Amino acid sequence: MQQHRFQHVAETFRNRFGQPPKAAIILGSGVGGLKDCLTEPESIGYREAGLPEMSVQGHEGSVTVGLLGGTSVVMLSGRKHSYEGDALQDVVCGVRAMAAWGVETLVMTSAVGSLSKDLRPGTLVRVTDHINLMGINPLVGPNISELGPRFPDMSQAYDPQLGQQAESVATELGIPMERGVYAAVRGPSFETPAEVRMLHMLGAAVVGMSVVPETIAAVHAGVRVLTIAIVSNEGTGLSDVAPDHDAVTETVGRAAVNLVPIIEKLVSQW
Ligand code: HPA
Which residue puts its alpha carbon closest to atom 3 of ligand 1? Predict the structure, then answer.
């Protein structure tokens, strides 16, 4: 039988790193500092892992295995986005490989725009659900039954228990964390003011261009998902300032100071 790319990658992970770690972590841009918290880190590049390489020159993706707060984790640095023109199969290849390796929990971070004035830039939002407006789904095509069913349930795509745990840790650390629905758009253009008003009316709290393909692929493969979004900017039209990529990255970098200890403490409990 023909092997899928993610199966080769899973085999490479097994040969290179041995037993699957407790959790996988996919970092959005600006949260890279979490990687420096790993002890006994061992890294390989995406190319060596057999993962689709990053399309941006000079950004070699890497897979790092190590201990975070004493718990074994695998971190993927370098995320592919649908707006780069990559097929969703490539976007989710890492998630599927980690699932096939035996990783049971996936933690993701993502920069998002807020859809109301209540969520200021810098706020952390625990994602409770999503609305997929990307117009695409990584499960389109023949079902990969080794991973999961044809019609996977998405009623609890973001694991409520993991979410509760994350909230408890945030409270213990004295860091405010909100909850909300993530509207996923394909990008790469930012939204128009009318789109921001529409997304808010639909019941979403934040809007972003990632997370959802990875979540769908993870849930399909039986992996529990926790996503913490960082509000990097107010949605278009909510303020006089138009969203801007450099400002997004800078705000996320500042908010990561709060996010990193939450993830570290949370993972140490597993
Ligand atoms: N819209 C979509 N994606 C984003 C935004 C936004 O305002 N900010 C960060 N990612």
Answer: 208
